[in-house]
Amino acid sequence: MKILKPEKITYETLHSTDRDRVLEMVKKGATRREALGWMTAAGLSAATATSIFGSATTAWANTPKRGGKLIMAVDVHGPDDQLDPANYKATVDYFRGRMFYGSLTRLKDDLSYEPELAEEVLSNADATEWTFKIRRGVEFHNGKTLTADDVIYSMNRHIGPDTVSTGATLVNMVTEWKKVNDYEVKAILSSPNSDLPIALGTFQFKIIPDGYTDFSSTTIGTGPYKVKEFAPGIRAVGVRNENYWDDGAYLDEIEHFAIADPVARLNAFLNGDIDAMSNVPPKAIDAVANATGKGLWTLESGAYVNIAGRVDIAPSNNGHLIKALQHLQDRERMVRGVLKGQARLGNDQPIGPAYFDHCPDIPQRELDLDKAKWHFEKSGIGNSEVPITAAEVGPGVVEMATMTQREAAKIGMNVSVEKVTPDGYWSAIWKVVPFCVVRWNPRPTANIMLSLAYHSQAKWNESYWKNEQFDQILKDVLAVTDPAKRKQMYCDAQTLIHETGGSIMPAHLNYIDGAADYVKGRTHVPLNSFGGAESPPFLWRDDSA
Q1: From CA 62, how far away is CA 131, in angstroms rounded?
Q2: What is the mean pLDDT of the segment spanning 186-194?
Q3: Which of 99, 232, 405, 531 could crosslink 81 through cysteines, CB 3.0-4.6 Å?
Q4: Crossing angle between the packed helical segments 319-327 and 397-409, to the nearest 10 degrees
């Protein structure tokens, strides 16, 4: 006969009633003797009771506490900073948006989704109609109750020929948002889109009150914090929304702004002037990891850095020149040296190994001076200058440009690097000059990422690359349920970019932020800095840490 050992009793395996009672005793300051006395009287051994008391103490230490302030600093801001979520396009906007707004859905750490302001999400059989049942009892910051009218108004801002939404391509298959009743809406699609609930959990699709238009200095949302102060290019300050419908909003106040200079941002963090910083410079990783009371907040992701070449203007419209630059990338050195191993090799297309639909069959492009020289000579550029504009808009991006310049000199190519300030970079440089460095945050699905950055109609198509076959693949794949067929279609799309696009992409990045030990409630959604910009509702401060 097999003898079964009794299961070890822990705080977690206790009946919920007993677990709550032990935790309540700890919260109320019961002495160790008092708590252990009750547990042993309840039939637990002294050893088990001691273990449970320790577990309950740990659980209490990890229970969010209300109060205090956190100061969070990202790397880039400017006069284009937005309170209007439909116009969001930068990390500084995304975090701020999570402070002040809610969405129908929100993303989880595994990049699945869960309902947020919608309490239930339903689809028809072919994903051409989605139903969202709206959570009751949610209030906006001005006391107005959330209803279907607010959802329809917010969603309609992203569709139609006159939309200015930076996320419009994610929902361009939605033909109508239809009100069923005060707490239920339907999205009617012209074509299948099984990614729609995930798309609606991304940064632009926040819910605002019906008819709201003035985002100049304040805004109204359902988020955990209300606007206390907002000045583009300076800072945003949020104070707790006491009527927040969900768990969270633990802090009294969050201050959020940017320190563009990475050295200044690092020093402000190490000196305690800010509580968390985005984009720890690769050279500073060890310093932060070893600093007393500081640590890394790091996530593997599909983020990437690249040199974007506009294929619609000279000289970046020269296909042989693009190929030469791609073969000049010392990717191994970039990943291991510049980025200190906190990255993976890039291959001149945006869907890296972090994505399920990554195509491993595309041959890895490597540093090859012979191939680079052949393409350079075919380009006919000669001694003409090949200008790359660079600013500290992401880890290693300036080094990426200067490394390209050094390798180019070996084959006689005249690459110049113009270093500029990050302030105003996204309005004055990006999508304007022939070549510039870029850091891209990933999106939760391959289709969303490709649609945002490479679809011919995408507002963020930085290379101005257009390919009808590619556009058709992105549309057709959303109706395919066979995983193998979907993967092959995405592989075809990635190959088109790899072979004909304007991206010179040496590395996919980890997110490497820094946070003081007392910053609790960190999220780990691998889509942006500060835990995918999902952390504001959950952050709390533990000064005993």
Answers
A1: 37
A2: 94
A3: 232
A4: 100
Residues in the chain: 545
- Record the pTM: 0.71
The one-letter code for the residue type at 17 is: T
Element (H, E) at 106: strand 105-107
Half-sphere exposure of 403 (CA within 13 A, CB side): 24
Helix (H, G, I), strand (E, B) or coil at 187: strand
- Give the Cα separation of 146 and 182 in Å (integer): 9
Q: How confident is the model at residue 354 (pLDDT cuts 50, 70, 90)?
A: confident
CATH topology classification for 300-509: Dipeptide-binding Protein; domain 3 (3.10.105)
For the ranges 27-41, 301-315, 356-370, the lowest mean pLDDT is seen at 27-41
Q: Which residue has the tokens 């969202």?
A: 132
Q: Which tokens go with 39?
A: 């547990």
Task: Using alpha carbons, select from 312, 250, 342, 273 the residue that is nearest to residue 465.
Answer: 312
Three-state secondary structure readout of 339-389 = CCCCEEECCCCCCCCCCCCCCCCCCCCCCCHHHHHHHHHHHCCCCCCEEEE
Confidence band for 4, pLDDT divided at 50, 70 and 90: very low
pLDDT at 2: 32
Could you give the percent of the chain with pLDDT greater than 70?
89
Boundaries of every domain in the chain: 16-61, 67-257, 300-509
The number of beta carbons lying within 10 Å of the beta carbon of residue 47 is 9
User: Can you tell me which residue has the tokens 């040496």?
Assistant: 506
Q: Do domains 67-257 and 300-509 have the same CATH topology?
A: no
Q: Which residue has the higher pLDDT, 349 or 475?
A: 349
Beta pairing, strands 503-516 & 253-258: unpaired
How do residues 321-351 score in pLDDT, each as one tens digit?
999 999 999 999 999 999 988 899 999 999 9
In CATH terms, the superfamily for domain 67-257 is: Periplasmic binding protein-like II (3.40.190.10)
Interacting residues of 59 by C-beta distance below 8 A, sequence separation 6+: 11, 23, 26
The pair phi, psi for residue 113, each rounded to 5°, is -130, 165
The answer to whether the CB of 185 falls within 8 A of the CB of 179 is: yes
Picking from 425, 506, 77, the residue whose alpha carbon sits closest to that of residue 278 is 77
The DSSP H or E segment spanning 483 is: helix 483-500
Q: What is the pLDDT of residues 56-102, one digit of tens each?
A: 555 556 789 999 999 999 998 889 899 999 999 888 999 999 999 99
Q: What is the mean pLDDT of the chain?
A: 91
Helix (H, G, I), strand (E, B) or coil at 320: helix
